[in-house]
């Protein structure tokens, strides 16, 4: 077999090691929500099971209409995918090519380097600032006539930090029109700096902006894979053209269309995460471990002079799974998803033993 030479440049996604362990696990590695879908969503899934001999709707019409109703945008401007990752990868294929430049902050979402590697575009990595936030001024300075796409992760994964909407608005206003910006908002519901609807207003002022969101986090549908993008109709048609036609399953479409109706449940989950966020931040601080100002459902924790592998490995030996920072772009850190109070206290007890 002779493979595409670019294959060697494509980084392997640093998946969590959760699946290798047995016994009762505390899974705090993948930024999943600890609560399953609401009963109404389970019912919507069950109602579609008997139709699985048929292909899913290639237009994802019910799901797109539900998202349109929630966001106030026409369904023609809603793209949906097999998780937001699929839309991200399709955007890279549709927008990038050899000679084009892709600008993104680092460390950030582990999928971003793949876009340049798969398309042959030139990656331009901009370090985060001292607080672990996007350095928008430096990112703007890196824009050239070859820049085709900029990726902003807000709140940022893995550092959990966020920028206010007005700062992003000002950044977008100064960009040349040939640059597309994808604002990756996988964790937007957890962001206390804004209402999740605040960034929707940016779409009216910036026609080259795309908002990327997911049902994998606060909605609790990570196992079904459903995400969406809000942008221009031109963007939706472009990403649909480069993907397979039946990329979102029947049950994923049904579940997402139902889940987005229950914003009261979303708010309840966000409140519970915020309580656990404060609990863990205080407990980690008492142990002398510093973390960034989280606006997500996870903490980005500095291990100081401790060996990252020893801490992460020691927790795994105690059936507590977190993510080491090296695989995510910064050595000497760990990323800890906020779980239930019981899970978080088990993490703290295991951490005390390891430390």
From TrEMBL:
Subunit annotation: Homodimer.
Residue ranges of every copy of the Aminotransferase class I/classII large domain listed in the record: 25-351
Entry EC number(s): 2.6.1.9
NCBIfam families, per database record: hisC
Pfam families found in the cross-reference section: Aminotran_1_2
Signal sequence coordinates: none
GO molecular function terms attached to this record: histidinol-phosphate transaminase activity; pyridoxal phosphate binding
InterPro entries named among the record's database cross-references: Aminotransferase_I/II_large, HisP_aminotrans, HistidinolP_aminotransfase, PyrdxlP-dep_Trfase, PyrdxlP-dep_Trfase_major, PyrdxlP-dep_Trfase_small
Annotated pathway: Amino-acid biosynthesis; L-histidine biosynthesis; L-histidine from 5-phospho-alpha-D-ribose 1-diphosphate: step 7/9
Protein name in UniProt: Histidinol-phosphate aminotransferase
Family classification: Belongs to the class-II pyridoxal-phosphate-dependent aminotransferase family. Histidinol-phosphate aminotransferase subfamily.
Catalytic activity: L-histidinol phosphate + 2-oxoglutarate = 3-(imidazol-4-yl)-2-oxopropyl phosphate + L-glutamate
Cofactor(s) this protein cannot do without: pyridoxal 5'-phosphate
PANTHER family noted in UniProt: HISTIDINOL-PHOSPHATE AMINOTRANSFERASE (PTHR43643:SF3), HISTIDINOL-PHOSPHATE AMINOTRANSFERASE 2 (PTHR43643)
Organism: uncultured Thermoleophilia bacterium
Modified residues (N6-(pyridoxal phosphate)lysine): 217
Gene Ontology BP terms: L-histidine biosynthetic process
Organism lineage string: Bacteria, Bacillati, Actinomycetota, Thermoleophilia, environmental samples
């Amino acid at each position: 077999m002779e493979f595409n030479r670019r294959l060697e440049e494509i980084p392997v996604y640093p998946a969590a090691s959760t699946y290798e362990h047995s016994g009762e696990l505390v899974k705090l590695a993948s930024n999943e929500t600890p609560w399953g879908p609401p009963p109404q969503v389970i019912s919507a899934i069950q109602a579609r099971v008997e139709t699985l001999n048929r292909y899913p709707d290639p237009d994802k019409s019910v799901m797109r209409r539900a998202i349109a109703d929630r966001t106030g945008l026409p369904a023609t401007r809603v793209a949906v995918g097999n998780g937001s990752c699929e839309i991200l990868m399709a955007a890279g294929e549709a927008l990038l090519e050899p000679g084009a430049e892709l600008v993104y902050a680092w460390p950030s979402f582990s999928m971003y380097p793949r876009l340049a590697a798969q398309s042959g575009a030139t990656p331009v990595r901009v370090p985060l600032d001292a607080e672990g936030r996007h350095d928008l001024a430096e990112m703007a300075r890196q824009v050239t006539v070859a820049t085709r796409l900029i990726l902003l992760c807000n709140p940022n994964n893995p550092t959990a930090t966020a920028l206010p909407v007005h700062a992003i608005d000002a950044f977008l206003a100064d960009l040349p029109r040939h640059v597309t910006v994808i604002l990756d908002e996988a964790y937007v519901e957890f962001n206390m700096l804004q209402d999740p609807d605040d960034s929707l207003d940016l779409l009216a002022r910036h026609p080259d902006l795309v908002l990327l969101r997911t049902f994998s986090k606060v909605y609790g549908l990570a196992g079904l894979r459903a995400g969406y993008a809000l942008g221009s109709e031109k963007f939706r048609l472009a990403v649909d053209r480069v993907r397979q036609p039946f990329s979102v399953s029947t049950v994923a479409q049904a579940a997402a269309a139902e889940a987005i109706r229950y914003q009261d449940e979303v708010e309840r989950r966000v409140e519970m995460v915020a309580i656990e966020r404060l609990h863990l931040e205080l407990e980690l601080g008492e142990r002398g471990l510093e973390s960034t100002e989280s606006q997500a459902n996870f903490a980005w924790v500095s291990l100081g002079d401790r060996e990252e592998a020893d801490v992460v490995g020691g927790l795994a030996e105690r059936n507590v799974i977190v993510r080491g920072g090296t695989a995510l772009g910064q050595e000497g850190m760990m990323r800890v998803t906020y779980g239930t109070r019981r899970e978080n206290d088990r993490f703290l007890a295991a951490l005390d033993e390891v430390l």
